[in-house]
Amino acid sequence: MAVSLISPYVAADEEKISVACELLAESGHRISQTTLERLCRANGVPITKIGRANAASWTQMLKLHRGWVHSRIGD
Predict the structure, then answer these.
(1) Domain ranges in the chain?
(2) pLDDT value at position 13?
(3) Burial 21-55 (b: 16+ CB within 10 A, else e)
Protein backbone atom coordinates (compact mmCIF):
# COMPACT_ATOMS: atom_id res chain seq x y z
CA MET A 1 0.00 0.00 0.00
CA ALA A 2 1.33 3.40 -0.96
CA VAL A 3 1.38 6.19 1.56
CA SER A 4 0.99 9.77 0.41
CA LEU A 5 2.94 12.36 2.31
CA ILE A 6 1.17 15.58 3.09
CA SER A 7 3.44 18.56 3.34
CA PRO A 8 2.14 21.83 4.78
CA TYR A 9 4.70 23.67 2.65
CA VAL A 10 3.39 22.58 -0.77
CA ALA A 11 0.06 23.54 -2.30
CA ALA A 12 -2.12 20.54 -3.14
CA ASP A 13 -2.65 21.87 -6.66
CA GLU A 14 0.86 23.15 -7.33
CA GLU A 15 1.80 23.67 -10.98
CA LYS A 16 4.91 25.00 -12.69
CA ILE A 17 4.42 28.62 -13.67
CA SER A 18 5.69 27.97 -17.19
CA VAL A 19 3.09 25.21 -17.68
CA ALA A 20 0.39 27.46 -16.22
CA CYS A 21 1.26 30.17 -18.76
CA GLU A 22 0.87 27.67 -21.60
CA LEU A 23 -2.51 26.54 -20.29
CA LEU A 24 -3.72 30.09 -19.69
CA ALA A 25 -2.74 31.07 -23.25
CA GLU A 26 -5.48 28.71 -24.45
CA SER A 27 -8.01 31.10 -22.90
CA GLY A 28 -7.08 33.70 -25.50
CA HIS A 29 -5.45 35.96 -22.90
CA ARG A 30 -1.74 35.18 -23.04
CA ILE A 31 0.34 36.12 -19.97
CA SER A 32 4.12 35.98 -19.69
CA GLN A 33 5.86 33.90 -17.07
CA THR A 34 7.50 36.95 -15.49
CA THR A 35 4.15 38.76 -15.23
CA LEU A 36 2.52 35.76 -13.58
CA GLU A 37 5.44 35.39 -11.15
CA ARG A 38 5.22 39.11 -10.34
CA LEU A 39 1.47 38.81 -9.68
CA CYS A 40 2.09 35.84 -7.38
CA ARG A 41 4.71 37.71 -5.37
CA ALA A 42 2.62 40.89 -5.17
CA ASN A 43 -0.40 38.96 -3.86
CA GLY A 44 1.44 36.74 -1.39
CA VAL A 45 1.08 33.47 -3.30
CA PRO A 46 3.91 31.17 -2.15
CA ILE A 47 6.33 30.26 -4.95
CA THR A 48 8.36 27.07 -4.58
CA LYS A 49 10.98 25.37 -6.73
CA ILE A 50 10.41 22.13 -8.61
CA GLY A 51 13.86 21.37 -9.90
CA ARG A 52 14.92 24.61 -11.57
CA ALA A 53 11.37 25.82 -12.29
CA ASN A 54 9.15 27.99 -10.11
CA ALA A 55 5.75 26.63 -9.12
CA ALA A 56 2.67 27.99 -7.35
CA SER A 57 -0.92 27.05 -6.59
CA TRP A 58 -2.88 26.52 -9.82
CA THR A 59 -6.07 27.79 -8.18
CA GLN A 60 -4.39 31.01 -7.05
CA MET A 61 -2.81 31.55 -10.47
CA LEU A 62 -6.25 31.15 -12.10
CA LYS A 63 -7.68 33.81 -9.79
CA LEU A 64 -4.74 36.14 -10.42
CA HIS A 65 -5.05 35.67 -14.17
CA ARG A 66 -8.78 36.43 -14.03
CA GLY A 67 -8.11 39.68 -12.15
CA TRP A 68 -5.29 40.60 -14.52
CA VAL A 69 -7.51 40.06 -17.59
CA HIS A 70 -10.36 42.10 -16.09
CA SER A 71 -8.01 44.96 -15.26
CA ARG A 72 -6.71 45.01 -18.84
CA ILE A 73 -10.09 44.97 -20.57
CA GLY A 74 -11.74 47.36 -18.14
CA ASP A 75 -14.46 45.11 -16.71
Answers:
(1) 14-73
(2) 86
(3) beebeeeeeebebeebbebbeeeebeeeeeeeebb
